[in-house]
Amino acid sequence: MNIFLGHFEPQTIVHRIPQLSPRMEELLSAILLGIIQGLTEFLPVSSSGHLELAKFFLGDDSLAKDSMLMTVVLHGATALSTLVIFRKEVFEIFKGLFQFKHNEELVFSLKIILSMIPAVFVGLFFESGIEQLFDKQILLVGMMLIITGLLLFLADRAKQTTKKVSFSDALIVGIAQAIAILPGISRSGATISTSVLLGIDREKATRFSFLMVVPLILGKIAEDTLDGAFSQSTNNPLPLIFGFFAAFLTGLLACSWMIKLVKKSKLTYFSIYCFIVAAIAIVAWFN
Questions:
Q1: What is the biggest distance separating any 2 CA atoms in the chain, rounded to whole angstroms?
Q2: pTM
Q3: What average pLDDT score do residues 101-106 get?
């Protein structure tokens, strides 16, 4: 999920179903948003691109309205699912860091920090300009989905290696992550494909891609919290709870599934899907 995308308005997702009570609509919306967050955080299909297409075809600008608290909760859920899947690696990293000496864990942590710099730079200095791209610009979405599809297609055909992530690789993958802020560029697709094309071992590439975004998600959560996310009052915490567990459980499944797919060189299926959605977006724009 694009962490610079903005915020969800959960009540708008199923409000067109008249037979449901408002409370049930809110719960179903929260669950649906959780599932979308959990899937698109890990699967290489670009959640931001799909949101822009939804806004265009539904003619519904309310999908972009602020609901900061739900955003924070869902992002927190997928960050937690990543930490659960990679709990052994995370434990080893912290264990190594607290040895206070130069070791493999310290080096890996420095690579993670290096990979974050491009996205942080873009987020700090260009966020207002980027927000203008999220206004039903489906021609841009279509073109970016083609790029995502090409990256996935090429990555599936890259040679298998056992190479680890170097510092220069970390910076390049970080640049790919920053570019993925554009709607239609999948963050996971761009970072994993870039890593594989750099010759990095597929499993190591996937591991690095998912771990490198956790600090960014946590940073975004902290920013939203300082902006007043948790100062929002809510009379019904159930949607937040349902959304959290939907995103967390879906994230666990999607993360595990994505690791297996990358190892088995099955990214082409997502590549074809991106090409199909891109064609729909481009045709719709010119019609």
A1: 62
A2: 0.82
A3: 85
**Residue 163, both tokens:** 């190479």
Query: Is the separation of the CB atoms in 11 and 224 below 8 Å?
Result: no
- Map tokens 């960014």 to a residue: 216
Alpha helices by DSSP H, listed for the chain, are: 22-40, 47-58, 68-85, 87-97, 104-131, 138-156, 167-179, 187-197, 202-226, 238-263, 268-286
- pLDDT at position 58: 62
Compute the distance between CA of residue 165 and CA of residue 201 in angstroms, rounded to an integer: 8
- 3-class SS of residue 163: strand
Residue with tokens 């729909």: 280
Contact criterion met (CB below 8 Å) for 201 and 164: yes
Query: What does the DSSP assignment read for 183-230?
Result: TT--HHHHHHHHHHHTTB-HHHHHHHHHHHHHHHHHHHHHHHHHTTGG
| 12: DSSP letter | G
Listed in sequence order, the residues at least 6 apart from 118 whose beta carbon sits closer than 8 Å to its beta carbon are 171, 174, 175, 177, 178
pLDDT tens figures, 52-73: 787 777 665 544 444 667 778 8
- The answer to whether 67 and 8 are in contact (CB under 8 A) is yes
Q: What is the pLDDT of residues 205-262, one digit of tens each?
A: 999 999 998 888 888 788 777 776 566 656 678 888 998 999 999 999 999 999 999 9
Cα separations in angstroms, 209 against 71, 72, 154: 21, 21, 17
**Residues whose CB is less than 8 angstroms from the CB of residue 29 and which lie 6 or more positions away in sequence, other chains included:** 10, 11, 12, 13, 14, 15, 239
